[in-house]
Amino acid sequence: MCLHPSSEANERDKKVFVVPRGDLEKVDEEDETSFEEKCETWRQKVRGCCQDQPPTKQQQRLLTTWGERLDVEEGLPHAEYPRPAMVRDEEDWVCLNGFWQYAVKRIEKGSPPRKFDGDILVPFPIESALSGVERRITKDDFLWYRRTFSLPKNFSRKTSRLLLHFGAVDWQAIIFINGQAVGEHSGGYDPFEFDITRFLNHSGTAQQEVVVRVYDPTDEGIQPRGKQCSDPFTSKRVVAPLGMWYTPNSGIWQTVWLESVPKEAYIHKCRIIPNVDANTVTVTASVRQEVFKRNHGLFVRVTFQGEVVGFASGSTHYPVEVKLSESHKTKLWTPGTPHLYDVEIYLHDSIIPKSSNNHVDVVRSYTAMRKISVGEDVNGVKRLQLNNKNLFQYGILDQGWWPDGLYTPASDEALRWDIQLCKNMGFNMIRKHVKVEPQRWYYHCDKIGMLVWQDMPNGSMPAEWAPNGEKDYSENPLDPLFAKIFEDELSSCVDALYNHPCIAVWVPFNEAWGQYNSVEVVTWLEHYDRSRLVWLSGGNDFGVGSAIDRHVYPEPEMPPLDDKRVAVLGEFGGLGHTLEQHSWTAQTETQREGEEEEVASSSSSSTSEEDAYATFVEWGYGQSENLDSLAQDYLSMLDKLNGLSKSGLSAAVYTQFSDVERESNGLVTYDRKFVKLDVHLMRRAHHRLLSRASTIISRSHQDLVALVQDSISKMPRSATFNILSQALPQLPEPDAGEAEQEGRRRRKSEAMSTVASMPRVSSLSYLSCSIST
Questions:
Q1: Which residue(s) pair with 572 in the sheet?
Q2: Between helices 679-694 and 627-646, what is the axis angle to 10°?
Q3: 599 C-beta neighbours (distance < 10 Å), count
Q4: What does the alpha-carbon distance between residue 35 and residue 39 come to, in Å, rounded to a whole number?
Q5: What is the pLDDT of residues 550-587, one digit of tens each?
Q6: pTM above 0.90?
Q7: Do 97 and 123 form a contact (C-beta atoms < 8 A)?
Q8: Model confidence pLDDT, tens digit, residues 728-754
Q9: What letter would DSSP give residue 506?
Q10: Which of 266, 469, 694, 765 falls 20 to 30 Å from 180 in CA-CA distance?
């Protein structure tokens, strides 16, 4: 996608460093370090100790439980299938995570280094502790990776092609296979792959060599980067408060893997569109062929819990629509009932295959029968709807950062734990904030039942912005180069995540960060994906999209109502409370111990970055003295949300799920070892909020309830008591059994005694609740 193609053909080359392709000098150094030695070196760097020795106080790091458990000798990190929405057979893929060689070299040297600096554990970014390196790179550096691999056992050069996949590499990557440049990719959040078949060495049992060169200027470039920042005190591309910007992530940070596909033709991509109103599932597939043919066809089969509920076939040039069986009662996907349908897609030589037999290729996916839309409630107010029913969405802002792996958690179990905890807390939505996660994160949301508002990571410069809307209809001027980079990555991310039913909303711009041509970008995205909603979150409003979204801290406030769009509160809260033993600051202070001589020698110098960062200890939008006051403040905000929902608010997002580095405004500590509020308390409070906010009564009914409540409040106690008495169960009929009559008398007597002992306000509340329901 390019909404703004540059008029200058070489504009991109002026600002993005590209090495000419061709045969490059091969690395002459072989990795002679044993696997056991690599594991021991990594263990010492990450945990500061040997395998059988506990770390000293000076060696301790802020690790999650999963980081503490991570043992490379027991298995590769993130070895699960990385693309669960489009799966081939298990024997068709090989995980390349694990130890790679790495080197950081000056940008002037564009060829692979002869000597590498050491080993890095992929897929953790080089700045993270779990990488075993924990080193920052700059705009003047290239980050190099190298490893060797063997061809998959089922690979045959006569019948197969070999694809090399990267889940994500931040930011620009050039891939070399056996010394030859295969391709280049720019974009830190979208997956990409290259067909490396013709670059392979087929002589005997020869090892294949892969080399990756990465360039990442972080906030000194204009590319999308989210909250990564080299130094918030000197950067010109960040806004206050500076405590909300985090450590950069560079290089490979998602799974690297090989996939064997049929040589003749294979399914490259697929798009699955459920239609709740028509009770259909439509599949469109992109096919890559060795030799172009017009006679390829698709056979699509949809099943639910093993039962075939629909199938259809057609040409690969057109969408294939599957009508679900009339005898099957459609199971709708909701956060409470996350039903998923399995979808099998077969590629055939014949243009209209009649069965799944004799197929050329097959991929397995899934979908959900769910509909995201906007509709009017009984009062004519625009509301968010799921499956044509009003649903108040209450979610949590999730940054997706980890103290040990930064962008990358220690394991897939950790990835799932965050989502499940949000579910247990009673949230029905997560706003993924200016970061795109690995596809398995969305897979877990699909299965657990969690709606997702997906932000596009920001880049470029922030536009002028005010949270109250004073800067509405203002944005950055168009930069053709940034528009090209941003829009290419936006469309790639949408394509990669399209088949995950959990995603309900796309947010292209947050708080005017990098905001430009808002009307055009939002309009394009609405047409590119008609199955989801699109809006600007807290940014400068332009009257486009499905919602008007405001960010207010700390107390929730009502956004202005719009007769065409829903009103949502994209951010509020941010209550902070730090637990020192679980804080990023405590880790920094511990690491400083034992370095007193270095500190003393530099004491005469100007204030260091760490000293400046120290001013952001316990930073948040509000501070609570203790956990009890934090709970009271939070519950008070929920009460206000309940009132706002009756005034027309359709959704709200609390900031935030976890502490992150210098931010202490999470419901969970950064290391995920302590939940600050009682989970059961939050679940009950959230359930009450969602039940009340999703139940909309007409204004006439509201007026009637208010009138009755006002009348009752003016009655003397005896009259109120009589009304309540009349509402109690009547005496039993004469023909009822003796035991039944006695039971009814006893229950009525107990109920009347209870009412008589109730204070006046409780009696009124009891009656008012009975009337309102």
A1: 654
A2: 10
A3: 12
A4: 6
A5: 999 999 999 999 889 999 999 999 998 888 888 876 55
A6: no
A7: yes
A8: 555 455 555 666 667 767 766 766 665
A9: E
A10: 266
